[in-house]
Amino acid sequence: GEDVEQSLFLSVREGDSSVINCTYTDSSSTYLYWYKQEPGAGLQLLTYIFSNMDMKQDQRLTVLLNKKDKHLSLRIADTQTGDSAIYFCAEKGDSSYKLIFGSGTRLLVRP
Amino acid sequence: EAQVTQNPRYLITVTGKKLTVTCSQNMNHEYMSWYRQDPGLGLRQIYYSMNVEVTDKGDVPEGYKVSRKEKRNFPLILESPSPNQTSLYFCASSRRQAFTVDYEQYFGPGTRLTVT
């Protein structure tokens, strides 16, 4: 069935780049997402990419999609302490009603 | 402001005491959904609704009920809560498009439920 996997934890120093990785199994995934969840808060859609794209850049965020390997990554440039949060990768097929989420990667930014 | 609201945000209850978590959206979305979030498991879909009076089970529906009497509201009902339903619950909504839903889903702020 569908599955999305992420590493559970990433620690970086403030000012460095962070790269959060995700793999998925559903080859019919049409939309791939990155959500951010700050402590005690809901889910914030950070960015998304369509499966016919390889890369999407939005200010400090760069999303890379390797469809052949079913690998998605989120790069955060110049990581700040305010970026500390849990980051969820999710995918949705074109004819699917639901999002399939990974388990989330907790990003800790050290001063 | 376009939003999905949930109430209550926090709830502590005891085993067996019926409770309802409300969800409301002001975007005239046809599709609404409930997810639960558990550590190490991400979010899993409980129930969803494609329109008024149309609901269907998600991946983890056991122990939950839903209803969709109005387009804007989609309450989640726990008839007899148990400790394994302690979780963080999210409601989401989206526009319906043809036989599917729009790529963008809007999430509520979450309801943290503890069942003792």
Description:
The complex is a heterodimer of chains A (111) and B (116). Chain A has 111 residues and is mainly β. Helix content of chain A is 0%, strand content 59%. Chain A contains no helices and eleven strands. Chain A has strands at residues 4-6, 9-13, 18-24, 29-37, 43-50, 55-58, 61-66, 71-76, 85-93, 100-101, 105-110. In chain A, strands 2, 4, 5, 9, 10 and 11 form a six-stranded mixed beta sheet that branches. In chain A, strands 1-3-8-7-6 form a five-stranded antiparallel beta sheet, with no helix packed on it. Chain A is globular and about 45 Å long. In chain B, β5 and β6 (54-57) form a beta hairpin. In chain B, strands 2, 4, 5, 6, 9, 12 and 13 form a seven-stranded mixed beta sheet that branches. In chain B, strands 1-3-8-7 form a four-stranded antiparallel beta sheet, with no helix packed on it. Chain B has a two-stranded antiparallel ribbon with strand order 10-11. Chain B is mainly beta. Chain B contains no helices and 13 strands. At the A-B interface, β4, β5 and β9 of A face β4, β5 and β11 of B.
Largest sheet of chain A: 6 strands, mixed
- Proportion of β residues of chain B? over 45%
Decide which structural class fits the backbone of chain A: mainly beta
Largest interface: A-B, 24 and 25 residues
* Uncertain residue segments of chain B: none
N→C terminal distance of chain B: 36 Å
Unreliable stretches of chain A, pLDDT < 50, 5 or more residues? none
Overall strand count of chain B: 13
What is the string of SSEs of chain A from the N terminus onward? Answer: EEEEEEEEEEE
